[in-house]
Design brief:
The chain has four helices and no strands. By secondary structure, it is mainly α. The chain has a domain of 27 residues. The radius of gyration is 21 Å and the shape is flat.
Length: 71
Amino acid sequence: MATEIMNPADGANGTDKETLYMLGGVALVIFGAGLVLSNSTVRRYLGQMGLGDFASAALPDIERYFRLRAM
């Protein structure tokens, strides 16, 4: 009975940790992107290239990634 009081829902505790880890990872990604974009050289290159050109340049790599992942 004492163990039931100490650990009332083992499954719920695990999902809470997973959610916390996921949100922490998202926060780190956003923070890292902010650090990269705060660099003046990166901003200058993105300004010259444009967002549309950047997306079209990254598209072949994204397609290759999804093909490898589907294997």
